[in-house]
Every structure is written in structure tokens, then in C-alpha cells.
Design brief:
Distance between the termini: 50 Å
Number of strands: 0
Helix content: 55-70%
Largest sheet: none
Shape: flat
Length: 113
């Protein structure tokens, strides 16, 4: 049995509101870092779009093999993250035992500094 995923389109006003909210949240996150002095005009837009695409990808993967007919649960999202090799950067979030240690994080930060 194959299930069809139906995404309901947003109205133009809802879409604009979502984009403005995502842009403002991204801008606030960028400004929260004390090392960031200036932010290019396109940076928040690109980051907001990347977040939107990540959310859509996770939602579609979780909905593909969901346990419930109309409800995507945390378990569905965890399964989607563990099944997709491209989502391996989220393993530490869904399974804290797989999160990198503080030493590994410090080494990685020194590498990219």
C-alpha cells in the first residue's frame, strides 16, 4: 500500500508571513553571535531557505514510513534521520549517546579556525 502525501498550499499572505518570520528568526540568530559584526543582505534569506528545505526534507522522509495515518511523531522523524545518510549530522540530536564529546568539538573548532 503506497500512501500519497498531500501538501496543502498556503495562500499568498500566509507564504509572505512565513518568509518574514523565518527571515527575522534567522537574522536574530545571526546577530546573537558576538563575533558577527556585519551581515550581508542575502545571508538571512539563504539560511532561512536552507532551513525551510531541511524541514521539508525531514517531513517528507518521516511521512513516507509513518506509523500513524495523519500524525508524524517524534519516532517517525528519528527513523527518518537514522535512515538517511545525509542526515548524519543530526544523530547527536536524536541520540545523545552518538553526540561528539567536548574534546572532539574543540578539536574541530581549532581545525576550522
Amino acid at each position: 500500500m503506497t500512501s500519497q502525501i498531500k501538501l496543502t498550499p498556503y495562500s499568498v499572505a500566509e507564504t509572505k508571513l512565513l518568509h518574514v518570520a523565518a527571515h527575522e528568526h534567522t537574522l536574530a540568530a545571526l546577530k546573537s553571535d558576538s563575533d558577527v559584526r556585519m551581515i550581508a543582505q542575502e545571508a538571512p534569506v539563504i539560511l532561512a531557505r536552507a532551513c525551510e528545505l531541511l524541514t521539508l526534507e525531514l517531513t517528507l522522509r518521516a511521512a513516507k514510513d509513518q506509523e500513524h495515518a495523519k500524525l508524524i511523531t517524534r519516532a517517525d522523524i528519528v527513523k527518518a534521520i537514522k535512515a538517511a545518510p545525509t542526515m548524519d549530522f543530526l544523530h547527536g540530536v536524536v541520540c545523545p549517546a552518538q553526540a561528539p564529546s567536548q574534546d572532539e568539538i574543540a578539536e574541530a573548532e581549532e581545525e576550522y579556525a
